[in-house]
Amino acid sequence: MKGFVAVCMSLTPELLKMKRAKPIHFAWSYDEEVSCLGGKELAEFARDHDVRAEGCLIGEPTGMTVVIAHKGTSHFWVRVRGKAAHSSFALTGESCNAIDYATKLITKLREMAEEYRGTAHGTTSRCRSQRCRRTSSVAATPRTPCPR
């Protein structure tokens, strides 16, 4: 977005020299990836000041290609169910740890993301994860070395 703002501002002298039937408005938003706070304020300002546009240019990172639409997104939830068992059966095949299989699923999705150029998301579909926490436990017998 900052590059787009810089280009628009640098073109201002040329735009002012052009003959126009209507004014040119620059409108910048902020926080569009998470809460869209700027969008709400921008819409209120346009309404309160009777700003009406016949067209607009929207600056988004597009790899310097012209884009005439926005990407769609798809959201889904996955629930992985396992088979509960005492931790002493963890490696015997008597249990099915849902966390282990969810981890395998996430790993596979990441591999697929490389093909489709997507990523696992964070707080919104356009925001990447800030943190991840996984708790694991080891039930070791007296002669089993503990991982460090």
Automatic annotation (TrEMBL):
| Species name | Trypanosoma cruzi marinkellei
Where is the Peptidase M20 dimerisation domain positioned along the sequence? 68-116
Q: What is the name attached to this protein's record?
A: Glutamamyl carboxypeptidase, putative,metallo-peptidase, clan MH, family M18, putative
What is the organism lineage in this UniProt record?
Answer: Eukaryota, Discoba, Euglenozoa, Kinetoplastea, Metakinetoplastina
What highest taxon heads this organism's lineage?
Eukaryota
Q: Name one GO biological process term.
A: L-arginine biosynthetic process
Q: Which Gene3D superfamilies match?
A: Zn peptidases
- InterPro entries from the UniProt entry: Peptidase_M20, Peptidase_M20_dimer, Peptidase_M20A
One Pfam family name is M20_dimer
Q: Where is this region: Disordered?
A: 127-148
Keywords of this protein's UniProt record, alphabetized? Carboxypeptidase, Hydrolase, Protease
A single MF term (Gene Ontology): carboxypeptidase activity
